[in-house]
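seq:
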Amino acid sequence: MSERIKHKSLAEHIVEELEAKIIDETLTPGQRIVEETLCKTFSVSHSPVREALQILESRGFVIREPRRGFTVVRITLQEVENIYRIRAHLEGLAMALAVRHRTPMFLSKLKRMHEKMILVAEKGKDKIYQGLNQKFHEMIVSACGNPRLIQLIRTFDRQTARYRIAVMIGPGWMENSTRIHGAIITAFETGDADAAERIRRGVVLNQIKRFSVIFSNEEGKDEDRF
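struct:
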């Protein structure tokens, strides 16, 4: 393994570890990330650590602050709304492209996933349903045929992982989700790319309405973070 490849793999490993800790809030919003500590934790030099932090900064997970260095990004209500408005259009586009690129085999897999989700919803197994719901939409995004679009959506998906589930869940959410998925599958069956795009865009935009409630519940803990 060349030194360049080895260096890159070290940086990527650090990125994955820190990203996971930020998502599960082991590293909390506003927390300072000390470069020297990371070097000791991962037993590496400063170079791959700095590269990892730059990657995390470009993905919106950390920010460089004067006299403090890197800190975990604090999420504001306005930022979340901005991200979800972008996501709505990106995922709507991916949905439309996936309809246009659909194959009988893909449609069959999507239907089987939908049927499985209906059974899980009927049993009230929300955590299992959450995982299947994520896979359902990942299947569609992956089928859009546009690698750059897929990359963008996955980046936004990681950035919003901390609060995505809280936004989704509510009374009757699984039943509503399966109903929407049924409409999406109908759009795939009929080849109606416009309808599929409209459905997905509308779902993501509607989730913005829950943000003010979620952030209001966080007041008193930290005024601008979730």
